[in-house]
Amino acid sequence: MLGNFSYCNPTKLYFGDQALDGLKTELPKYGKNVVLIYGGGSIKRNGIYDAVVQTLGEQGKRVAEIAGVMPNPTVDKLYEGVEIARKHQADLLLAVGGGSVCDYAKAVSVSVNCGEDPWEKYYVRFEEPDCETLPVGCVLTMVGTGSEMNAGAVITNPHTKQKIGHVFRDEKIMPRFAILNPRYTLTVPRDQMVAGIYDIFNHICEQYFSGEDDNISDYLSEGLMRAVVQAGRAANRDPQDYEARSNLMWAATWALNTLLSRGKSTDWMVHMLGQAVGAYTDATHGMTLAAVSLPYYRHILPYGVKQFKRFAVNVWGVDPAGKTDEQTAREGLDALEGWMKELGLVMNISQLGATPDMLEGIAARTIIQTGGYKTLDREEILEILKESLA
Amino acid sequence: MLGNFSYCNPTKLYFGDQALDGLKTELPKYGKNVVLIYGGGSIKRNGIYDAVVQTLGEQGKRVAEIAGVMPNPTVDKLYEGVEIARKHQADLLLAVGGGSVCDYAKAVSVSVNCGEDPWEKYYVRFEEPDCETLPVGCVLTMVGTGSEMNAGAVITNPHTKQKIGHVFRDEKIMPRFAILNPRYTLTVPRDQMVAGIYDIFNHICEQYFSGEDDNISDYLSEGLMRAVVQAGRAANRDPQDYEARSNLMWAATWALNTLLSRGKSTDWMVHMLGQAVGAYTDATHGMTLAAVSLPYYRHILPYGVKQFKRFAVNVWGVDPAGKTDEQTAREGLDALEGWMKELGLVMNISQLGATPDMLEGIAARTIIQTGGYKTLDREEILEILKESLA
User: Fold this and answer.
1) CB atoms A243 and B215 under 8 Å
2) Is A2 contained in some domain?
3) Which of A262, A373, B17, B363 could form a disulfide with A304 if both were Cys (CB 3.0 to 4.6 A apart)?
4) pTM as predicted
5) Does B263 sit within 8 Å of A216, measured CB to CB?
6) CA nearest B344: which of B145, B187, B190, B186?
7) Pick from B13, B14, B227: which is nearest to A216 by CB?
8) Residues B119-176: tens digit of each pLDDT
9) Does position A1 have pLDDT exceeding 80, yes or no?
10) Could you say which of A185, A206, A234 is where a domain stops?
11) Do B147 and B65 share a structural domain?
12) pLDDT of residue B212
């Protein structure tokens, strides 16, 4: 049953191959001092950097830069960015990149005026900001995380080997605007593209495999999953397929902008396992999810047969005639596995650099969620990680 | 292919049986003078009026009232409300009712500071407001129109026999907040409940039966339609089924809050036909849509066979094996017809008070849309209306 909830997503989205025009509409709403935030420099090679900097110049903005934001942004990088934003007296943080860069900008936003260590406040004690936050805008260049329309920010602490996400409550922490030009995603390497595709799909799964409510979210999720399966196949056949890439971009936004989770329980255990693997291996987020998903889902399936059967029938078209519910349910996961292999996803954590001696540590650092069909204990987590090795 | 578009829906929604608590959070954001807007007085019988007035009192608001907003709000009622809002120097317009009351509040919002006749400006010339508009809040008591999270406002001019909707462009005209308590809808008479259910379903159809893009919207629409079919059946079996009524309420919001139409073409011809019938008969909106839908869809089916086939297979589970595409497509509409009859919808315009002598006038006042699979001419409109008589 749909419970009590509130919903508000005020992010203004500009979508399409002309989306950058939206930046000209948005920039005048903010003060002069902009901090431009980006990653490894691919945006300098493909012309996006130049286009953004030109627009900022035309609008008379004073620009400082935080460059080199890594795929798993670290807490040290966060401290560095906070200093730059403070010195520049930033009026707007403009993230140009994928989910990591956008997450990072949100983490800087809540930290600039925070009177204490933001890691301790937001990622250890999980508190909400009680200081003024800075507005964030986003020019998205990679698809998957949905960071462009939510208030989540994942930060990694390499000292403690922890990769932790905080989904902030206040919608003011969501990007005020996001520029979604599917063309910007065409130059992303194929393995990052497919990792992003699986990230989208898994975001939907995390919200779908919880409860047995038959509510609006289940139906929307099934529609979105079918769309991602179809568009993922098309993009994998031809990564230059603008239509497929634009459908993936739009699906990613809706997979994780809080709509699907309204009024229902959610799981997020695949993300907890994947993030723990990521903290040890620095592997690409979507690949860590892919590598642990099937051992996890096959483990919990007996506790949520009804929903896994529904998934098999409504998403993958499995015919349930003459089968037990569990057989039908398992065929759904087999179909998922087939699609994942078709995309060329990494299907085990060994290939991501995890070794047997790491497993105890990864298991110990895996945050245990309680929303799924079975709350795991540490032994089960270790078992799933062992199964994920090969 | 998803085209260029922008998306921004800042309405804050409070959902669930405790949703009215949200009013306490929202009211302090606005000034002292509130105009309370409602319809025929059912909210006085079921206690909603008292609960809202009590909350307004606790917050120290000065309240004026616009009562008696009719199911098809007239332009004369609009002029009356504008006077009341002006005299009261309204800081907030609080609509308590269904889509008509919420539409009406938005029409007052854009008219209070409008220097000329709002009917001429907004409903004849279709201009956007260039004056200050008033914030609107909404406590929803009837489900269907989606007015709680969009910028649309339908007004009827009985003098010219026109019922016209204007979807304003600026998201500021959307309600700032909406209180969605499914319990408030339990006392709605059965015929109004089912009319609302068909209104939801048809909103999705109007956006689905246009183009052949296979984009995210198609998949989301199919998910939502399946959800509405299921929840509609459950609510029809037992109108007191809170779960079914809450799913319908949430589906209605998403069926018409601009998400489904992003980046794609839309039709809206069923609404144009239904509204023209409504202007002559003053019949319930959802019933007018039901009464003209099947003659219209059967007429245009040959021009959009691919999408009607998809609708048959993905929404109604029609098996296409051994059938022509057109046969499969027609079976989908037969399935829709079966569901509509199950709900007890009015399936012809005679029952709504339309007579053969009205048809020429209705046809002449039907606004012709160009987004569907076939742009109708006046003769085809007349033909469809004739078929809708029986």
Assistant:
1) yes
2) no
3) A373
4) 0.96
5) no
6) B190
7) B227
8) 999 999 999 999 999 999 999 999 999 999 999 999 999 999 998 999 999 999 999 9
9) no
10) A185
11) yes
12) 85
Write down the mean pLDDT value for chain A.
Answer: 97
The helix or strand, by DSSP H or E, that contains position B9, with its residue range, turns out to be strand B5-15
**B62-74 pLDDT tens trace:** 999 999 999 999 9
Chunked into runs of 10 residues, chain B (390 residues) has average pLDDT values of 92 98 98 97 93 97 97 96 98 97 98 97 97 98 96 96 94 97 95 97 98 93 98 98 97 97 96 96 95 98 98 97 98 98 98 97 96 97 97
Nearest neighbour of A16 by CB, restricted to B3, B17, B214: B3
- Calpha distance B15→A384 (Å, rounded): 38
* Statement to judge: residues B29 and B148 lie in one domain: yes
Instruction: Indicate if A195 and A328 belong to the same structural domain.
Output: yes
- Min Cα–Cα distance to chain B from A368, Å: 29
Specify the number of domains making up chain B: 2
Q: Which domain holds residue B311?
A: 194-388
Let me know if residue A1 belongs to a domain.
no
Say how far apart CA B328 and CA A125 lie, in whole Å. 57
B243 closest CB neighbour out of A1, A16, A243: A1
How far A256 CA sits from the closest chain B CA (Å)?
15
What CATH number is associated with residue A263?
1.20.1090.10
Other beta carbons within 10 angstroms of residue A379's beta carbon come to 9
Residues 6+ apart with CB under 8 A from A83: none
Shortest Cα–Cα distance, A211 to chain B (Å): 14
Long-range contacts of A358-367 (CB under 8 A, 24+ apart): A358/A280, A358/A281, A359/A385, A359/A386, A359/A389, A361/A161, A361/A280, A362/A276, A362/A277, A362/A279, A362/A280, A363/A276, A365/A161, A365/A162, A365/A276, A365/A279, A366/A272, A366/A273, A366/A276, A367/A164, A367/A272, A367/A275, A367/A276
pLDDT tens digits for B192-202?
999 999 999 99
Rounded CA separation B219/A250 (Å): 12
Of B3, B13, B222, which has the smallest distance from its Cβ to A6's Cβ? B13
- Report the C-alpha gap between B61 and B166 in whole angstroms: 31
In a domain, residue B5? The reply is no
What ipTM describes this predicted complex?
0.95
Q: How far is A112 from chain B (nearest CA, A)?
A: 26
- Asked if B227 has any chain A CB less than 8 Å from its own CB, the reply is yes
Q: Per residue in A114-167, pLDDT tens?
A: 999 999 999 999 999 999 999 999 999 999 999 999 999 999 999 999 989 999
Residue A225 belongs to some domain of the structure: yes
A15 in B contact zone (CB under 8 Å): yes
**Helix residue spans in chain B (DSSP H):** 21-26, 42-45, 48-58, 75-87, 99-111, 118, 190-208, 216-237, 242-255, 269-281, 285-300, 305-316, 325-343, 359-365, 378-388
Among the partner-chain residues B4, B16, B216, the one whose CB lies closest to the CB of A3 is B16
Q: CA-to-CA distance for A245 and A251, rounded, in angstroms?
A: 10
Least CA distance to A175: which residue of chain B? B8
| B4/A11 touch (CB, cutoff 8 Å), yes or no | no
Which of A212, A215, A225, A259 to mutate against chain B (most B CBs within 10 Å)? A215
Tell me which chain A residue has its CA closest to the CA of residue B5: A15
Residue A78 and residue A43 in contact, taking contact as beta carbons nearer than 8 Å: no
Residues of A in contact with B242 (CB under 8 A): 1
CB contact under 8 A, B220 and A215: no
Q: What is the DSSP letter of B357?
A: G
Last residue of a domain, one of B141, B161, B185: B185
Determine whether the interchain pair A220/B216 forms a contact, defined as Cβ–Cβ distance below 8 Å.
no
Question: Nearest by CB to A15, which of B2, B221, B227?
Answer: B2
Query: Measured between CB atoms, does A282 come within 8 Å of chain B?
Result: no
Kindly identify which residue of chain A lies nearest to residue B12, measuring between CA atoms.
A8
